Amino acid sequence: MNWRVALGVVLLVAAVVSGWSAWRMRDRAAPTAAAAERSDYVLRDFELVVLDREGSESVRLRAPVLQRSRQDESLDIGQPLFLVPGEPGPWRLRADRAWVSPDGELARLEGNVEGDSDPAAPAPTAFRTTRLELVPGQNLARTDQPVRLTQPGIIQTATGLQADLRTGRYRLLSQVKTRYEPSARR
């Protein structure tokens, strides 16, 4: 057998194997889609303190999981608890999920959103809604969704809410209904 014939047979077998391999892989999805969805990093069971420009605590965040998007550098947070400084103590904002903008100036809480003022407040306040935007730099919480707000002796429902979490002042935007429930005499 001539070396040229042996080389030709080896090249023919290599061409057949590479063609067969390429034919089998033609229907597979490109791996870049999965790589693009991966997170830059993941935090588990963490507590994060965010400071404002003056160095004071702006917001404290606790959650079981946080993922940072590689594409837009936003944060996706599962079951977050935001503690926002207020008078006399912090507001507690909980939700099923939260998204935080890349610059940290906006947080969107979604699913079973609960906001509770400090129990030591003169009129402890709680609100419930399905979606809420938190602007930590302005101590502002707002929503355009139906909201239920309760204080001792008062239950209010409305569509839309804007609340200054530092001072505890809030504004219900539309379709406001108020029900007074005086406490029982002792």
From TrEMBL:
InterPro entries: LipoPS_assembly_LptC-rel, LPS_export_LptC, LptC. One of its GO terms (molecular function) is lipopolysaccharide transmembrane transporter activity. GO terms for cellular component: outer membrane-bounded periplasmic space; plasma membrane. Gene3D superfamilies: Lipopolysaccharide (LPS) transport protein A like domain (2.60.450.10). Keywords: Cell inner membrane, Cell membrane, Membrane, Transmembrane, Transmembrane helix. The keyword Transmembrane helix applies. One of its GO terms (biological process) is Gram-negative-bacterium-type cell outer membrane assembly. It is a single-pass membrane protein. It is found in: Cell inner membrane. It comes from the Bacteria. Component of the lipopolysaccharide transport and assembly complex. Interacts with LptA and the LptBFG transporter complex. Belongs to the LptC family. Involved in the assembly of lipopolysaccharide (LPS). Required for the translocation of LPS from the inner membrane to the outer membrane. Facilitates the transfer of LPS from the inner membrane to the periplasmic protein LptA. Could be a docking site for LptA. This is Lipopolysaccharide export system protein LptC. It comes from Pseudoxanthomonas taiwanensis.
